[in-house]
Recover the amino acids of this structure.
């Protein structure tokens, strides 16, 4: 008997970002594993059991879900946003890579979702309209020195930068240091977009310039998009400004 | 009377990648503008008119849709994937930025979708599981020299790289040049994922190593994900390999 493991992206916030594919995969599961706040978003169906776990337990959660599926069940693991972006898909692959040989025979599928940077960008215009990168500021899993190298490289090369995990209780100083670092490379007028709890009732979207970026305005639920030298702000009477990065770059900067 | 313009992401391929939000926005529109093959995916409803246009007409399409909405209508513009990633959202913002003052008072919303790199990644594991960037190889809108600078910066700094628009009929050599450039920085064993027509019946997903990357295997409908030095391949008996980038980076490379 062979089980199935589905690694499913819920998108940010509420139901309206869920794809049909993700919805079908959720319905089909007998058991659903996930970080507690994500499971809380999903109604429990009579045939389903939820297995909530805490943050920073991704490896253990992946292994538990795989073990359950290998016993012949249809098991799901959920991520907020997209499971492939700083989330459970890599944790599941890692567990299969380093786990018992029989785990490699398991039927695994990954169901994409709307990742936070796409949802935040959509709320304010098109800041990711040209070349961009996604960078996690968490130094739980990589040295801080490497994060600074990547900030330097991305800002200098003209990429817009989406910062995931800008702050946490255990990492209060990283975001401030990242902002200082970016100020070495980018003009003070560079627009930054802070998106918090997108798609939820307490959603907040805010545009500030790099010189006025208050590091206090980011928390664990915030995604920050840092513009490039090309990113523009369109002021609109009686409406929030649009922030976008044009599709064309005229010249190579020095 | 005030109209509304919705810039909507259809996701890649078929209906199953559509979010509830995008589906609702499509239903509500009186007129839908888009690149012809994307419009062909949407059933025409009795109250709706479709306005197809050709590739590389993004600016004209955006202006036509805005003019239509400003006359008091509920108008949609569609993109495959996500409208904010190398697509119509930036074209619409650009048109508003440079167009008549009254366009700034228009009610505009952007509805995110599953962009190609997320769908391709999900088909093979989690290649975007750690820091990554998205780079368009089209030099219609930026100098080739800048594209090479960005390839150098991203590969050196250890980002996984998603290449959008790797080839077109008008740009036959760019992808080959990009591969040559990447070979300067990355080991020959670096995995590349070629994803073609994801979510469609003729979908093709293929993993190759950098030394064996045939530039002939990419076309206009292909998205290519180039691994970093950390990206790993999990060989599985009787199944396609998984490709993933681990969540943790142990050391800073020289």
């Amino acid at each position: 008997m062979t089980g199935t493991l589905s690694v499913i992206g819920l998108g940010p916030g509420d139901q309206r970002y869920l794809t049909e594919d993700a919805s079908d995969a959720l319905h089909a599961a007998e058991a659903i594993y996930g970080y507690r706040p994500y499971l809380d978003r999903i109604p429990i169906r009579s045939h389903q059991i939820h297995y909530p776990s805490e943050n920073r337990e991704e490896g253990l959660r992946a292994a538990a879900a795989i073990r359950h599926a290998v016993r012949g069940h249809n098991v799901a693991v959920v991520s907020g946003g997209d499971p492939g972006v700083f989330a459970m898909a890599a944790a599941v692959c890692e567990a299969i890579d380093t786990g018992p040989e029989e785990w490699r025979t398991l039927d695994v599928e990954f169901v994409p979702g709307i990742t936070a940077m796409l949802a935040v960008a959509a709320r304010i215009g098109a800041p990711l309209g040209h070349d961009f990168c996604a960078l996690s500021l968490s130094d739980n899993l990589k040295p801080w020195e490497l994060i600074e190298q990547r900030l330097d490289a991305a800002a200098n090369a003209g990429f817009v930068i989406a910062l995931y995990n800008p702050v946490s209780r255990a990492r209060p100083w990283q975001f401030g240091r990242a902002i200082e670092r970016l100020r070495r490379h980018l003009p003070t007028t560079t627009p930054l977009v802070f998106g918090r709890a997108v798609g939820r009732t307490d959603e907040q979207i805010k545009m500030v310039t790099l010189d006025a970026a208050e590091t206090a305005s980011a928390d664990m639920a915030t995604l920050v998009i840092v513009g490039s030298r090309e990113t523009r702000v369109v002021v609109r009477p009686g409406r929030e400004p649009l922030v976008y990065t044009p599709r064309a770059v005229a010249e190579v900067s020095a």
